[in-house]
């Protein structure tokens, strides 16, 4: 267990060379990947979303591909297409960039819903279907997608079915003044990308996934998670609450979060730390509450007593 805590510290330290001041965001992305989940980074252009994805791919020793989603992108640009081979006088399937271990779907919501849907099967089943044939994707397979705020022009909203396939959603936000000064001086940022060295090998991933599931989730903590989930299903609070798949994600993320601190058991603080990132994009408030206000309301109104 302590080995993963050491890996976490190393990941945050090395990642901070490129995306400085975002240690907790790096930890949460690491948590999602430890759970085999996908990540959605939602923020304004230019705050480091793409750099974050590239940094994680390099440090975690994963094969990496990037797709720039645009309005004219076709599903075949993601999955691949049959191309006629004149020498063989036959069609051959040319694999698209989805056949990788870490896929950066950059500005996902600038593509049409048809192009967005090309990722649905890949994210859920880790496979794609082409001309009636099912092709497995490399393992492990992760998607880190970025999207711009819906208030910006040229964006298409992601449907609920797509959002639910993302394990967590994060916003990086602006850097603080000290970090931005270091960025302007070239002490941190993309210029440091070449300094990064992988801290994991591909053969390490199956063991990491198994360790997450070995973390103890006691009855009182499980009851606390269920109280949070039931609160989201209160029609006086949310029009759309957490699904059973989402509640499983909360429990799994809490296990992984505990593991990053070297613990083999979950405490309520772990649940509270991961809950906004796991639940926020899956909920719809009854009133005109912001996502942050809704999550605070739920966490503040659910009793923790008995979960410690």
CATH domain fold name of the largest domain: Rossmann fold
Query: Sheet bearing the most strands, described?
Result: 5 strands, parallel
Integer-rounded radius of gyration: 20 Å
- Element-level helix/strand string: HHEHEHEEEHHEEEHEHHHEHHEH
- How much helix, percentage-wise, in residues? 40-55%
Name the CATH architecture of the largest domain. 3-Layer(aba) Sandwich
Report the mean per-residue pLDDT as an integer: 88
Q: Termini, distance in Å?
A: 21 Å
Poorly predicted ranges: none
CATH-assigned homologous superfamily of the largest domain = P-loop containing nucleotide triphosphate hydrolases
Count of spatially separate domains: 2
Query: Which word captures the global form?
Result: globular
Itemize the secondary structure elements and their pairings.
Elements: H1 2-15, H2 23-34, E1 39-42, H3 49-59, E2 64-68, H4 75-79, E3 80-85, E4 90-95, E5 102-106, H5 113-116, H6 120-125, E6 127-130, E7 133-136, E8 142-147, H7 160-163, E9 168-170, H8 177-185, H9 205-214, H10 219-232, E10 238-240, H11 244-260, H12 268-279, E11 284-285, H13 291-301
Parallel strand pairs: 1-8, 1-9, 2-5, 5-8
Antiparallel strand pairs: 3-4, 6-7, 10-11
Helix pairs in contact: 1-2, 2-11, 9-11, 11-12
What's this model, at a glance?
The chain is an alpha/beta fold. The chain has helices spanning 2-15, 23-34, 49-59, 75-79, 113-116, 120-125, 160-163, 177-185, 205-214, 219-232, 244-260, 268-279, 291-301; strands at residues 39-42, 64-68, 80-85, 90-95, 102-106, 127-130, 133-136, 142-147, 168-170, 238-240, 284-285. The mean pLDDT is 88.
């Amino acid at each position: 267990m302590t080995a993963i805590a050491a890996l976490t510290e190393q990941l945050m330290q090395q990642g901070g060379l490129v995306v400085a001041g975002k240690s907790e965001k790096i930890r949460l992305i690491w948590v999602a990947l430890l759970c085999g989940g996908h990540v959605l980074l939602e923020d304004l252009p230019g705050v480091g979303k793409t750099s974050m994805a590239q940094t994680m791919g390099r440090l975690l020793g994963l094969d990496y591909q990037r797709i720039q989603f645009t309005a004219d992108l076709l599903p075949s640009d993601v999955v691949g297409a049959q191309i006629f081979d004149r020498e063989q006088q036959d069609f051959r399937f040319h694999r698209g960039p989805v056949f990788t271990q870490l896929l950066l779907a950059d500005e996902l919501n600038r593509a049409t819903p048809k192009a967005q849907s090309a990722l649905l099967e890949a994210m859920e089943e880790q496979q794609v279907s082409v001309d009636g044939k099912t092709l497995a994707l490399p393992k492990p397979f992760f998607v880190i997608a970025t999207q711009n705020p819906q208030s910006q022009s040229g964006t298409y909203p992601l449907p609920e079915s797509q959002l639910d396939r993302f394990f967590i959603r994060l916003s990086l936000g602006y850097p603080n003044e000290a970090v931005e000064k270091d960025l302007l001086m070239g002490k941190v940022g993309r210029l440091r990308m070449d300094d990064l060295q992988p801290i994991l090998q591909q053969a390490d991933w199956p063991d990491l996934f198994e360790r997450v599931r070995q973390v103890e989730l006691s009855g009182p903590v499980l009851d606390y998670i269920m109280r949070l989930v039931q609160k989201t299903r209160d029609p006086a609070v949310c029009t759309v609450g957490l699904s059973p798949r989402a509640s499983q994600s909360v429990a799994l993320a809490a296990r992984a979060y505990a593991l990053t601190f070297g613990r083999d058991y979950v405490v309520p603080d772990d649940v509270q730390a991961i809950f906004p990132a796991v639940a926020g994009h899956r909920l719809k408030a009854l009133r005109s509450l912001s996502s942050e206000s809704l999550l605070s309301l739920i966490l503040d109104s659910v009793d923790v007593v008995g979960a410690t």
